[in-house]
Amino acid sequence: MGTTAHAQVDEPPPLSAYGALPGVEMAAISPSGANIAVLTTIGETRLVLFLGPDMRPIRKMEVGDSKVRSLDWIGDDRVLLQTSKTEDLWGFTVDKAELYSAHIVPVTYDGEVTTVFKRTRRLVDAVFGSHGIRFVDGRWQAYFGALELRRDRRDGYTFNHSRPYLYRFTVDTQDATRIDTATGEDHYRDWLVGSSGGVAAVFDLARSDGDWKISNSQGVAIAEGTHAAGRVGLVGLGYEGASVIYYLRDEDGVSHWYEVPLAGGASTPFLPDADVDRLYFDTPTGRLTGYLDAEDGPVFADPTHQKAVSRIRKAFAKYDMRMVDWTPNFEKVLVRTSGNGDSGSWYVVDLGTMRADGFAYERMRILPDMVGPISTFSYTAADGLDLDGILTLPPGREAKNLPLVMLPHGGPHAHDREQFDWWAQAFASRGYAVFQPNFRGSTNREQAFKLAGYGEWGRKMQTDLSDGLAALAEKGIVDPDRACIVGASYGGYAALAGVTLQQGLYQCAVAVAPVSDIGDMYNEDYRASGRQRITKAALLEQLGPKDRWDAVSPRRHADQADAPIMLIHGEDDTVVPYDHSYKMADKLKDAGKPYELVTLNGEDHWLSLSSTRQQMLEAAVGFVEKHNPAD
């Protein structure tokens, strides 16, 4: 870990340079490599920009504050754009839901943007799961879960049930065709679509008892069993498209992947010795092409692809690099980098010429010397467990006795890595060291490390954070008397726990969309599932026995808060309801403890809107600067 100071930065960028949505949010390359679709912001306008072979715009479409969730090319002429919107619901197990819509956008020809299922009266004009894009009989087909409406007595349509059917949407004609039925009540169903456009495999799970089955296109069960917590499901088709990959958690809670032939036969372990972050699939066929190994990077079955990957990794070895998209022949690859001296850059790599051309930058106002140094800091927990986290230092300052912002990630099953993090860098630009610990329960190591977090909310997962603070102080990097804790979602819970369940560690806490009561979270998730047994089992597996929850629920210990608390919450949060912050604020008020409650109007759990994301950052940084000044 390096601690050498960079050149002094006289004036840091405004917080809006960090808090605004990045100049590029996502990008995709067409199959021929001729065109690129970019979700970007130019000036004050947020739009999808389509670039042609000479990198000049061929079309643009303004999207405003739409929550764009994905961009996928359909051939070289059209893009599938998926968006979501928070909707109020009545008569369901939840009061609000994030509903997704899919839109077909013509790029290289004149035409209107069409919404999938919009013209089909018998279907809800939303999608409930995406199952691939295929080219069948000369036509592009997209596959989605859809909710059917039933006819009422007035020759209209009314809601039937919330179990999706599998539908094929023909892109050029907009015809919607059902290709498989919904599952029965109290069951869950998922599908894999084969290269010919037919159903290759169906997964069924009984929510009541965890009985599960995978069937092939002939309806023959090729794998089945029971898992009380429902920890089983489809992963995808195998390399040749003749097998199914699925996951199953064993009695010790460790997930394993298995492969079974579609024609039937024994299930065998799949990649048992690899540390897989994600799998790569071929869009037109749905077949597996490779995977991302946590240590070794991308691994492809095709040797020419693997050779190309090695060259790309070598070219960008200095940065956190992700191959975002590529052409089927692997001649062109979209690459995103960030890290030390890089606030986010996008390249198109032409492997024929071995040329990498930068075509976009995420934060033009944050220059290389304004990026705070990023490194991995390793330490040992009190019980001897080896841990690490990402340390971001303020630009131009010596790494000695710095004020600290402890910034635990959400999830809690996630992890931080050495990349440009807009939230961490914003605090670093104001003179703070920022530590993002990969506490037990994180996903940066083997599954046993993730499972070590089960039942440890507010316990060892919490002390992993304070052990990191102590280790940084022992090295002389931070001043332990000048620390605040900040986080979102699970990280928000940890921030509240840091000043209620623990005392004497932090000068303030900022909790964004936090869980404040574990019992409430359990009841909300259980209710949302329709009170299914497998959901109950899965939650108890993760959270531990109910009789231990009150002891680690910050709301139950609001009267023990020993530092000022800021609560920030989006009113349209469908993951952690706004009530978690509202009720926590009420308890703090009753206890006479200092707090502030900031409501983000129209915002969801993921801070999807630029204006409210900036509102959050301004409030959080201002609160920390007030209660724990950097100078």
UniProtKB/TrEMBL annotation:
Residues 419-627 form the Peptidase S9 prolyl oligopeptidase catalytic domain. SUPFAM superfamilies: alpha/beta-Hydrolases, DPP6 N-terminal domain-like. Pfam families: Peptidase_S9 (PF00326). InterPro entries: AB_hydrolase_fold, Peptidase_S9_cat. The keyword Acyltransferase does not apply. Keywords: Hydrolase. This is Prolyl oligopeptidase family serine peptidase. The lineage of its organism: Bacteria, Pseudomonadati, Pseudomonadota, Alphaproteobacteria, Sphingomonadales.
